[in-house]
Amino acid sequence: MGFKQMACATLVLAAMAAPAVAGEGKISGDVFGDMYWFAANHDSTLEDQSGLWFRRINLSYDYKYSPTYSARVRFEALSPGDFSADSMVPYMKDAWVKWSSGTHGIILGLQQTPLSNLVETVWGYRSIERGPGDLHGFGGSRDIGFGAQGTVGANQLFGYHLLFGNGGGTKAEDNSKKKLMLALSVKPTDELVLEVYGDYEDRIDEADRKTMQVFAGYMASRFRAGVQYTRQDRNEPADEDLELPIISGFVAANLSEKMWLFGRVDHLTEPNPQGDKIAYVPMDTGSAPTYVVGGLDWTLHEEKNDAGKLIADVHLMPNVEAVFYDEPEAGGSAPDTDVIPRVTFQFRF
Fold this sequence. Notes:
This protein is mainly β. The protein contains three helices and 16 strands.
């Protein structure tokens, strides 16, 4: 970390530690990573790689000015997921202010996108892996822009999440192009939720992208499950246009007071041309991949407040990731299967 970055981080942490006078502030953190081993891989240069990395280190400060206005600042750092020797460098993950009225909110700034918000809430294991759309490069979890989200109807039956953003994720804006994202949901019962999502991204050189997604999730106290279909259409001015579909499903079941079992499968029916850029689990770009992960979640420690709300916990999650490949359309043998045993750890406060 350079001197300027260190000085900035020090000033921010000092401000966060200052006592709240006019409103109400809270510091929270979320850290997770893996002890990993690339036991087998389609890329021989990665096979037998092993180590320990932090996939996310988040430090957040939430401030509530009043019942109407609130704000969040979140810094994030992570180990490089491309096996480079680069150091972890903190960057801004969230920076927004929100106006709320009833069940509706308007948000301005760097904020969460609608693509994986509900999906990852039901999945519940962001520490294991990102949502399918985010993992396979269909869109990021954050963007800078103007958003609105809320619920309407009796028992908050219908939900919406709209974001008009730059389309560059956490990066600074460098062009006039924009991205429009919208998710609409319905919750017919306390456990069941259905959502449709769509976005349109106006990109430079007419390389525009459109994404559509349908998701059905079930979330009870001892069991969660979800299925989704996502497709992205990519304009490729210098080549044939691409249609990339994902079919995905997951389950998570409570085995005991401190133990959960989870599993997930993502299948792409076409090769992902940016598959080798996927952090922590790079995939072959010439064959359609099927990503599989399964494991156990063991709660080592948890703390709750007087109201019974969870405020801190520690988890250890032994799991295995695997990527199976179809035979290339151009012919030849399918790439070797990727097998990555991991022990994932997470602590939150």
